[in-house]
Every structure is written in structure tokens, then in C-alpha cells.
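FIELD: query
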Amino acid sequence: MMEDQAMARSTRTKEKFYLLWVLANGFGWPLGWGIGQVVGRVVGVVAFSLALAATEALAEGAMPFAPNLADLSGQGWDLLAASVAAKLIEGAVMGAVVGVLQWLVLRRRLARAGWWVPANMAGWALGQAAGQVIFFRWLLDDRVLLSAAVWTATAGGVGGLIGTIQWFVLRRRSRRAGWWIPVSTLALAAGWSLPPLPLLWIQSFLMRPGGGEPFILAVILFALLALVGELIFWFVGGGLFGVVTGFPLSRLTRSPESK
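FIELD: result
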């Protein structure tokens, strides 16, 4: 009887953790993205202004110690530098928001769970910045399949980077914490790649040549879709990430009474 009650209590604990983990990611991703966008845009404008001023100074010979950098502005590197700086801040803010919500779920199951937040911030910041470089180089391409493949690979790489940094926290809890890295890789690849597909299909349908909708209506619908599309993307992507990672993480952070 006691064993049955203990098993039932353990099952309820696992189910509660799983549900809270999915909700933390499902709501944390869009919330973190929204706050990060506001802060990141400000940083991006400032960084772009500084980069533009620097490249103009180079072009005018005001900085003769680095003459070969004068061509960077024409190649778009000032825009890249500004966008990477913005993504670093966006990623750090998003990682902080998501990390805090995840910490609220993990704090009773993971020793020194407070380190989860800075680990999240570092992983998301570096991952977003690296993703922006790849986007700047490869995703501005009209070959849809190539862009989709690069996008998915980038998402997996970001997930692997975040998972590796989080592993330093998880390894204190479980000897099998190394499994978290491939789990995070696959989960983020799925969370970033699957949600945009229906949105991209609808966008291409509305803006297709010779479509039957009035042009102004198509533009309005496209704008509305773009407005809510990002929030939908992050909400569904975060929820999907939580669904994929919830069970493995519950195994890696099992509470003492459930062992």
C-alpha cells in the first residue's frame, strides 16, 4: 500500500514537472524574444551607427593604421557587426527570461540551479550571434531548400551550444548528463525548423504571382501574419522544445524521493 502511494506520488511529480517545463518554454520563448527585440533593436542602432562612423573614418584615411578595413562598409560588414551585437544582447535577454522560468521549475530538483540562468544567457547569446553570422552569409539566398537545410543545421548547432553550456550545470546531478547535449541539439532543431513551415507556406500563397486575392488585401494579410508570426513561431517552438526535452530532463534531475 505504501509502495503504491509512493509510486502514485512519484508519477504525479513527474507529470507536474513535465507540464510546467512545457509551459515554461512555451511562454518563455515568446516573452524572452519580445523583450530581447526591444533591447536588441536599441543596441543594434547604436552599434550600427558606431560601425558606420568607423568605416567612414577608415575610408577618409582618419585611421591610417588599418587602411585595409576601409572596404568593409561596402561589403556590408558594418551591418553584420551591428546585427551580431544586437543578437548577442537579444540572446542574453531571451536566455535570462527563459532561464528564470526554467529555474522556477528546476530549483527543487537541481543543485545550484541558480547557475542555470547565466548558462542559459551565455548559450542563447553566443548561439544567436553565431546564427546571425550564418544567416548573413547563407540564408540570404533564393534557393529555398538550401536555406531550409542551413536554417535547420544552424538551429541544431545553437541547441548543441546551449546544451553544452547547460551540461556544466547538469553534470553535478547526473553521470548521464552528457545525453543532454544531443537532446538539446535535436529539440532546438525541431523547435526552430517545424513551426515556420506552415507560416512560410501561407506567406508564399498570399504573395504568389497571379494570385486571386486583391493586392492590397494580400499585403495586409501578409503584414498581419508577419506581426503575429514571430510570436506564434516562438510559442510553438518553445512548446515543442519543452515536449521533446521534458522527459529526458526529468530523468536527469529526478528528485531524491523518486529514485
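FIELD: remark
The chain has one domain: 12-258.
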